[in-house]
Specification:
The protein is mainly alpha-helical. It is about 65% helix and about 0% strand. Helix 8 runs antiparallel to helix 9 (about 155-170) and helix 10 (about 170-190) packs parallel to helix 14.
């Protein structure tokens, strides 16, 4: 039996599908065990068959219950917004979206937007959603941060909420810069292990980075940290400034093409996601 809160990534979505059958687990368990423990009141032949079935079923049912309980425990370990997506949640897809695009989904936004983002056909479609749903995303992030009190990161929460206020007024440059500064501070505090920090934030010499650490991440950890990695694409001072969100370009370039509404939404979302995860630890 795997770690109850850490199924293999490729099986995580399957766990959620099984978990959907288990809200009435205790009642079903009692009913099945009661059935197998009773003396069947049938013909002699049927009674013998039922006893044989019961002897085989009891150990099998115990393994089934353990598996379903593991699935239910994993589902309960997810943040509320992902839990509400239920069995439709595509764990591998949202981890990959985080890794490749830097879109954080831990804690915010709401379940309906998680569904739309994970099911969007491509990067461009997800970027459009970030723009059209900006107000809702700001509201969701602000609501999560209002209840978030991660140790040593209280001012990072203040910074992101200040960035949200600026973004609501259309001040994209200051909002994106503020959220990115909060992301920097939070990542440095949270990722105390230098090996993990340099891999996730893509800092230090490329030849020294050990991205095999990602294989060691638990599912929940990957959901929270791979978007931070995705928000740190490699960028050197002489590179063309990207138009998609980049922590490095935001911090080290004064280029109009890097600062935008969509990038502001992404900076706020990935930082909120990281802070919400830390708060749940």
């Amino acid at each position: 039996m795997p770690d109850l809160n850490d199924p293999p990534r490729e099986l995580a979505s399957t766990y959620l599908k099984f978990a959907g059958f288990w809200p009435a687990g205790p009642k079903l368990q009692r009913a099945l065990l009661d059935f197998t423990s009773r003396q069947p009141v049938l013909s002699t032949g049927a009674a013998a068959w039922m006893k044989s079935f019961a002897r085989a079923f009891v150990p099998m049912s115990h393994n089934l219950f353990r598996g379903l309980n593991a699935a239910a425990m994993f589902a309960q370990s997810l943040p509320a917004n992902l839990r509400e997506v239920g069995s439709d949640l595509k764990i591998m897809e949202i981890i990959e979206i985080g890794r490749e695009e830097g879109i954080g989904l831990y804690g915010a936004p709401r379940a309906s937007l998680v569904r739309r983002l994970q099911n969007a056909p491509d990067v461009a479609a997800r970027r459009r959603l970030l723009g059209t749903e900006a107000r809702n995303i700001f509201d969701d992030c602000d609501a999560v941060l209002e209840q978030t009190t991660p140790p040593k990161l209280g001012f990072a929460v203040v910074m992101v909420r200040d960035a949200i206020a600026a973004a609501r007024d259309g001040h994209w440059i200051s909002a994106q810069a503020g959220a990115t500064a909060a992301l920097d501070g939070a990542a440095r505090t949270v990722l105390a292990d230098k090996r993990i920090r340099e891999a996730v934030t893509r800092t230090g010499r490329i030849t020294r980075r050990d991205e095999t650490v990602f294989d060691e991440f638990k599912v929940i950890q990957a959901i929270a940290l791979m978007p931070v990695y995705g928000a740190h694409p490699n960028y050197r001072y002489d590179d063309i400034v990207p138009s998609n969100y980049s922590r490095h370009a935001t911090a080290h370039s004064a280029a109009r093409r890097q600062f935008s509404k969509r990038n502001t939404v992404q900076a706020i979302l990935v930082t909120t996601s990281l802070l919400a995860w830390v708060d749940d630890l």
